[in-house]
Design brief:
This protein is of the alpha/beta class. The chain has helices at 6-23, 28-34, 41-47, 55-64, 70-81, 98-109, 128-136, 146-159, 175-178, 184-197, 256-272, 276-289; strands spanning 112-117, 167-173, 203-208, 225-230, 239-245, 250-253. It contains 12 helices and 6 strands. Strands 3-2-1-4-5-6 form a 6-stranded mixed beta sheet, with helices on both faces. A hairpin with a 4-residue loop joins strand 5 (239-245) and strand 6.
């Protein structure tokens, strides 16, 4: 089944069309002429998931690409139909900025999410009181109202607790549970919540401690990053995306070399971090320190 989140549908459609064009040995200029366009700009934008296409234009492209598989054609039309954002970002969801809305679409469609985190507990693992303390405590930063941010974050967590929830893997720097947001009670509740979540069958939480391992192995997480895998039917295979969040930039990258580099980084930090049982024991010690 194709994804139903608009951004992911548009991305999968673009990738499949680029693949089919390549199999037909056509240039983007030649593809543009199939839909009676004078230049390749529409094809370029479409394949980059930045443009749209009508059902009639899609059929012209598929005819020109020699696609006679009815199931594949139906899939491509369903992806096109599901690529609209109309009415999706109302109510509490409107607190998300444009760039983060794209991330939410990918998050909702993913079957595997891997998060490397520093300084704060990942949003998908935060308690309500921790989230409130975090947003209420920020100064000099433009953020939406605290109540709306809490509501939107809890809704994200609920979506990922559904029956077909994705596999969730977290490597968290020790700094995530050492930096205080709110008082000791807030932090103890948050750390105990991490312990509870780590016992779910689809969740693995690993802590990367400040101290090196006994064998001397040590590494650091210098910034947060997320790797998402979105299942895709048909020719293109799973869509893998690396997401990084810096002070002034939210970046998505599905370039194979970039994703491979982040995958190697993940393997490195996950390999050196405490394993899941060791991390739970470590978190229990942290929780006790907040009593």
């Amino acid at each position: 089944m194709p994804a139903t989140t608009p951004t992911v549908c548009k991305t999968q459609l673009g990738k499949l069309l680029a693949l089919l064009r390549g199999r037909a040995s056509l240039t983007q200029d030649e593809a543009a002429r199939l839909i009676r366009r004078k230049d390749r700009n529409k094809i370029v934008l479409l394949e980059k998931a930045q443009g749209s296409i009508t059902p009639a234009e899609l059929d012209l492209l598929l005819d020109g690409y020699g696609v006679d598989d009815d199931e594949l054609r139906e899939l491509l039309h369903r992806l096109r139909d599901n690529s609209s954002q109309r009415g999706r970002w109302t109510g509490y969801r409107a607190v998300y900025g444009e760039a983060f809305r794209k991330y939410i679409d990918f998050e909702e469609a993913a079957d595997l999410i891997r998060v490397g985190e520093v300084e704060v507990v990942p949003g998908l693992l935060q308690t309500e009181s921790y989230t409130r303390a975090m947003f209420a405590g920020r100064r000099g930063v433009s953020v939406p109202p605290t109540d709306e941010m809490v509501q939107s974050r809890l809704a994200r967590q609920a979506n990922l607790a559904k029956d077909d929830a994705p596999e969730l893997r977290f490597v968290m720097s020790e700094s995530c549970v050492r930096r205080r947001w709110g008082g000791s009670e807030v932090m103890r509740e948050q750390v105990e919540h991490l312990i509870t979540r780590s016992q779910l069958p689809n969740v693995i939480i690993q802590i990367l401690p400040f101290e090196p391992r006994e064998d001397g192995a040590q590494t650091a997480l210098n910034y947060r990053f997320t790797l998402l895998r979105i299942p895709a039917p048909g020719l293109a295979g799973p869509l893998e995306v690396a997401y990084t969040e810096l002070a002034t930039d939210l970046r998505f990258d599905d370039d194979k070399k970039t994703v491979a580099a982040y995958d190697a980084l993940w393997s490195n930090v996950a390999g050196i971090a405490l394993n899941a049982p060791e991390s739970r024991a470590f978190l229990r010690t942290i929780a006790e320190s907040y009593r």
